[in-house]
Write a structure and sequence with these properties.
This protein is of the alpha/beta class. The chain contains 14 helices and 13 strands.
């Protein structure tokens, strides 16, 4: 097996958080030959254009522009192919990946870890997953009410931002100059409820020493995944406990499971009056007026969203369902005679709430269908 000597740094963060500014600062500091992969959803890669105009003559950079898609899904195979190609260049000493603002870092890291396992001779290894966080936006939209002139639908993206925060081993709190010291402390405390392990570094205009990014323990996919607030709740909570599972930080969590569907109107009413004591909620649900689709329900702070996903297996036509069940008989392990594989399974995380009160609110939204 060859020595893995080329660190790969994945930089994530929502649109406008400051990823490109961070990359500009990194390029000014870096004195080795590096490769840079820039992913942008648009047909014209604006971020790469900005980086190309930094005018830095000291750094030797090979830049790969990936656009019209996202490296966590539609461009994932192409992304891995580019990493493979770059790894063949013995002169490259580090690879930085600027993911698009809507990327899910867990998917990118997972694809990269699979690549490492399948190609043991590769020179590259995943060093750091950085989440660039707009501290001002977190203060306004996660910790406090949206102002009257804000687009509430825009606030729903805070759930994606939370996913990016949960799956990293370094958090850069950018734009801290827009907050008072008291507000910044409130942001730090709120984010620690979600992300316990990653180092948290405040900064302005992405100005961070490169050593902070490279001189740390290598990224551990399994450890990072298990330390997310949702995964901890799933791992630690017994579903039939009378009380929520409480950790050493005073944060409690529980998992709600129920086969019967929610009434859509009633559930939407619950979301509109969502308990403030709940910090984070995530899980799969279904509605009585739609027996076909899985819905993803997410909440972070003041924001909540419901997104239609794929179909329940039991909604497939019999001619498609029967061979699948024959090949994967485990699908029938939790199969319900009436509802098939349909099930509400949601993780609730918060402080100072009564589990019984939340469960009652949920059952008030459940609809008897048979």
């Amino acid at each position: 097996m060859s020595k893995r000597e080329v660190p790969v740094v994945i930089i994530t963060g929502y649109l406008g958080s400051g990823k490109t500014t961070l990359m500009q600062n990194i390029l000014k500091q870096e004195k080795r030959k590096i490769a840079l992969i820039v992913n942008d959803m648009g047909s014209v890669n604006i971020d790469a254009g900005i980086l190309n105009k930094t005018g830095n003559s000291v750094v030797q950079v090979e830049m790969v522009e990936m656009q019209n898609g996202c490296i966590c899904c539609t461009l994932r195979d192409e992304f891995i192919a580019q990493v493979e190609r770059l790894s063949q260049d013995k002169s490259i000493e580090a690879i930085f990946v600027e993911a698009s603002g809507i990327s899910e870092p867990s998917s990118i890291a997972g694809a990269f870890v699979n690549y490492e396992e399948m190609c043991p001779e590769t020179r590259v290894y995943l060093k750091t997953v950085v989440s660039v966080v707009d501290a001002d936006r977190i203060y306004r939209e996660f910790l406090h009410e949206l102002s009257a002139d804000e687009d509430v639908e825009e606030g729903d993206i805070i759930n994606l931002i939370m996913d990016q925060i949960e799956f990293c081993n370094l958090m850069l709190l950018n734009k801290t100059d827009l907050l008072t010291s008291e507000q910044l402390e409130e942001v730090k405390k709120g984010l620690r409820d979600i992300q316990r392990v990653a180092e948290m570094i405040p900064c302005v205009q992405g100005n961070v020493d490169l050593d902070v990014i490279l001189n740390r323990e290598d990224f551990d996919f399994d450890e990072t995944e298990s330390n997310s607030s949702v995964q901890r709740a799933l791992n630690n909570c017994e579903h039939d406990d009378e009380k929520a599972c409480v950790d050493e930080y005073g944060i409690s969590s529980f998992v709600f499971e129920e086969k019967k569907p929610f009434n859509r109107e009633a559930f939407n009413g619950l979301v509109e009056k969502y308990p403030e004591a709940l910090i984070r909620t995530k899980g799969y649900i279904w509605f009585s007026d739609d027996w076909k689709h899985i819905q993803l329900f997410e909440q972070a702070g003041r924001n909540a969203s419901i997104t239609e996903l794929s179909e329940w297996v039991s909604a497939w036509p019999d001619e498609e369902l029967e061979p699948i069940v024959a090949d994967f008989p485990d699908l029938k392990d939790d199969w319900d005679e009436t509802y098939g594989d349909r099930c509400n399974q949601v993780v609730f995380i918060g402080k100072g709430y009564e589990k019984a009160d939340i469960v009652k609110m949920l059952y008030d939204c459940i609809e008897e269908c048979v």
